[in-house]
Amino acid sequence: MRDHRSVGFGVYVHVPFCARACDYCDFAKWTDREHLIPAYVEACRVDLARRASAGNLPPATSVFFGGGTPSLLTARDLLSILDAIPRVGDAEVTVECNPDSVDADKLAAYRAGGVTRLSFGVQSMRTHVLSALGRTHDPANVRRVVAWTREAGFATFNLDLIYGTPGETADDWRATLADVLELDPPHVSAYALTVEGSTPLGRRVADGAPAPRDDDQAAKYEVADDVLGAAGLEWYEVSNWSRPGHECRHNLLTWGGGDYLAIGCAAHGHRAGRRWWNVRTPERYVERITAGLDPESGHEQLDSARRDEEAIALALRTRAGAVLPSAAVGVAEDLADAGLVTLAGDRVVLTRRGRLLASDVTARLLVAADDVGTRYA
Q1: Backbone angles phi, psi at 41, to 5 degrees
Q2: pLDDT in tens, 42-51
Q3: Domain 9-254 sits in which CATH superfamily?
Q4: pLDDT of 115-127, one tens digit each?
């Protein structure tokens, strides 16, 4: 029997406003719509209230404010949205923050208002790399916000990094990791820079500027894994390392195939195999909520076989690994012989080399599974 188990219930709130767009970012965000913030905040509250009245908003085990730049909102506005979300007593509440858009008072207000976790977009601790990415903060800002985070009483937070920026040397990356570890973070995320054609970075690359190199990014991933692991942060997902007990519960829910509600423009949600996404722009979201309409723009219904495939793909990205159907065991053994996975009882887990080739390894296992099905535990 297939086991798409419940792993909690999450709420994702998308805040699409930014003071400045980073050169690499292709998320749904706008730098010229701050005048919409009051109406947008009210629309989010109304959307939540309607769903609660309809019985479609169970107490959340996790809430995640993403963007855009959620910390661009005043603490009062952000917390007014949070207050509209029923939560279990120990719910995790994460807010993504730009180091430039918070201060000690805002972080203290977040903590007093029920936020339990912060995620800071650090990207690099080298100024020339930050400039190449179009970031506005400097390393001193990062040190200040981490101090304020601790003063406000946050027990857990994340520092988010990007590696492989053209012009970033191996020494730059090692220095970034060293500077970050001096701050003793309980959680670090590190992502390879990707080039999206619609971004300023993408246009520069199309015009002949250097692009990130796969070999450089692979080497930097290995350095990150070595350095972070030696500092006591264990990998628990391909791009995430944490101290025990500081894993992001909201992300674990999504990787576990759990249900989560989409609030705000361009937000994606999932419930029982039905995945949907809201209208993309803040204007349209406000208009639809104001008119009493559902903000959904589109959806897809995953059949059981597709859910099984996604369960394998998502589980393989995690330290726990995936349980495979018997049809895929032979391929898994071949991958183990090649050093790409390890077999632990009925589970297959990516090695570090396998993590670097995660897409290829996953594709081979899914072909072998051939819709026989799996349970996701």
Answers
A1: -60, -45
A2: 999 999 999 9
A3: Aldolase class I (3.20.20.70)
A4: 999 999 999 999 9
